[in-house]
Write a structure and sequence with these properties.
disordered C terminus, about 30% strand, 7 strands, alpha+beta
Length: about 160
């Protein structure tokens, strides 16, 4: 396994769309392992392959306190959203920046696991938030970073 470099905003590579994974093989499983190791080392609770300059639809998430519940989502699709909740979110590609983001309170997601088996998961709370964040990490980085960094830059200019 290897710890990969996490791209930082405003790196343009964060805006490259992720492609569907067509074949799950040893290289895909190694990437999953590297993503997990990178996420844990950061430390974080979720990481999308795009954040390490691999533009494939792969995300890893572990919201457990003891890092014992790694979840892998390949070609994930949210098939149901319900309710709304506002939570403070951060992003490994925007270190030190947090913002309140409204997302669905619960979701149903269908994806492939690290071995290519299709599964469906009903998630709520932090897991639902993390799934949605990682699925739309590029959107979060582009839209929220502009808003948050713009506000912080304006505040700094007023101070100086």
């Amino acid at each position: 396994m290897a710890i990969l470099e996490i791209l930082q905003y405003p790196d343009e590579r964060l805006t490259v769309p992720a492609a569907r994974v067509e074949k799950i093989d040893a290289a895909t499983r190694k990437l999953v392992d590297d993503l997990a190791e990178t996420m844990y080392a950061a430390p974080g609770i979720g990481l999308a392959a795009t954040q390490v300059d691999v533009h494939k639809q792969i995300i890893v998430i572990d919201v457990s306190d003891d890092r014992s519940d790694l979840r892998v989502f390949i070609n994930p699709e949210v098939t149901r959203r319900e309710g709304a909740a506002v939570n403070q979110e951060g992003c490994l590609s925007l270190p030190g920046i947090y913002d309140n983001v409204e997302r669905a309170e619960s979701v149903t997601v269908t994806a492939l696991d690290r071995n290519g088996s299709r599964f469906t998961l009903n998630a709520s709370g932090l897991l639902a938030t993390c799934i949605q964040h990682e699925l739309w990490v590029t959107l979060v980085v582009q839209r929220r970073a502009c808003d948050v960094i713009g506000a912080q830059t304006s505040a700094l200019l007023r101070i100086h």
